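Follow-up to my earlier ticket, as requested here are the two runs.
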Amino acid sequence: MPEARELEPHRSELVGYCYRMLGSPFEAEDAVQETLVRAWRSLDRFDEHRASLRTWLYSIATNVCLDMLRSAQRRARAMDLGPQAQAGPDLGPPLPESAWVQPIPDGRLVRADGDPAEVAAQRETIRLAFVAALQHLPPRQRAVLILRDVLCWKADEVARLLDSSVASVTSALQRARATLRTVPVAPAEPYRPMDEEQRRLLARYCDAFERYDVESLVSLLHEDATTSMPPFPWWRRGRAEIREMLLAAGRPCEGARLLPTVANGSPAFAQYLPTGPYGRHEPFALVVLSLSGGLITELTTYLDAARLFPLFGLPSGEEAGALFR
């Protein structure tokens, strides 16, 4: 019989699985905690002759996620919720946190010192666009697709985990793949921290944003780039439309400072706004970028800094102020 201490090493990969299922890092952490508690309470009933400890934990995690998804609405991105907004100050009413696919720190899911090919694959399957696409699947199909196509489990292993048949798992996988083919997912390059072209692009973005140089910012965008600002359903597509929006907004982010981080396999920046004398800056937003062909294809600005900055281990306003002096 395994000991309780043998459960903890599985936490990171379980968080990754639950995050793809649930679309929220906070719910994923809750699901994994519940999984480990249930496993700890049932260790005396674990039969190592029927399944490995890892498979057993995934079975519990799947049931926990399916329970959580029973009455939950589908999490989405702004582009999934309606047509793009018109230029102007009205962002519409904010939606609850439960409406959105939320970002997650790479460090919770991806080992930077792992095999480069595996790291690239992991980053691809936690991209915001991919996780949002998964939310279009019914929960059981979602579990099958993640286990088979993301985690590369065999059909018979998934069938045993779900207490189902191989034929049923194969059918669910086919339906899930067919649904995903109908959900547009814009291509994006995997984030490569040591790639010189990506580093130059991100440095130029940071410089243009901190100077609030609209023309320089727009020059870094793909022609069909999108921008959105959860929790508001507002979004815009196209370089010209985003330029129009930035000019119409005035200079609300003048004096902002950025700190780099990584979210969902993509480069991201913590945004701090000046709030008074002595160079003080306060947390404002987490901006997640997608890159392709040397340009920015998507900017998602999450305004829930109070919850997201601690999750990402980002400095508070007072700590950030010291860095910016």
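Run two:
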Amino acid sequence: MKMRTSPWRAAIAAVLTAASGAALVPATAQAAAPMVKTQAPGYYRMMLGDFELTVLSDGTVDLPVDKLLTNIKPPQLEKALSRAHLKAPVETSVNTFLINTGAQLVLVDTGAGNLFGPTLGKLLANLKAAGYQPEQIDAVLITHLHPDHLGGLLAGDKRAFPNATVHLAKAEADFWMSAENMKKAPADAQSGFQNAMAMLTPYATADKLKPFEGDTELVPGIKAISNAGHTPGHSNYAVESKGQKLVLWGDLLHVASVQFADPSVTIQFDSDSKAAAAQRKKAFADAAKQGYWVGAAHVSFPGIGHVTPEGKGYVYVPANYTTKQ
């Protein structure tokens, strides 16, 4: 009886025959390919109910966390970093968040612009790579007026987002826009006031600066939440659509590998470290209890995930990668 050969067996036999023949042919030398040494454009997209969220990277910056973190002893810090296979300085993400509500395009924070050197200031390039133009932005929500969050408001000496209204807490604007407060500040801290004035004045002049007070809805589905501590008017932003919720934390934390496990750890950037720690503990507990999404400016890009309790602290669970829209 004649045996029939299945198509897949025949295909495998053909591949093996070709491979054995190829082994007899000398390999042709190829020139080494040059290393590219760049990442793909820094944007990450996901849906939140009916809203489209696009996280935009402004780049990364090395932070000497061993010199900046407070309320933690050096051996404890080294151990916490080691668990995450890190050591100081820690390459730290600067993330911004773009929400397309279907009716408005809202950007939360603007990165560093040209205020932090060449490793940051990538926001506009990544915004365009993600399919949007600066002129399309309707509103810019600022969590606080540190340079790595407001520096992208200008492109050169012009408004980077010419059609956008800038929203931030009145307490934040009042503090950083005060010449009197600037005079009281140490000499090496006065540039923070100067930067805030330079970045916000063009929007104020164009009647495009709208400070708010307290917890208030700024855009349908997007609400400001007072979170003073890191700065006098630091704000979080809660985004909700179709029963899904995301809270954008600004600078609620800086070093995920340390501060999730121990929220009491503070940083020298805090204007009121005690209040900042209290706000962090409150936010972690609420996110863990309610199970909503969180987004953080300085958690490794894209900085979107959930918070889970563990022992006396918490664990950050990054978003599972998705291509679904």
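The only thing I checked on run two: The mean pLDDT is 92. Let me know what else you need.
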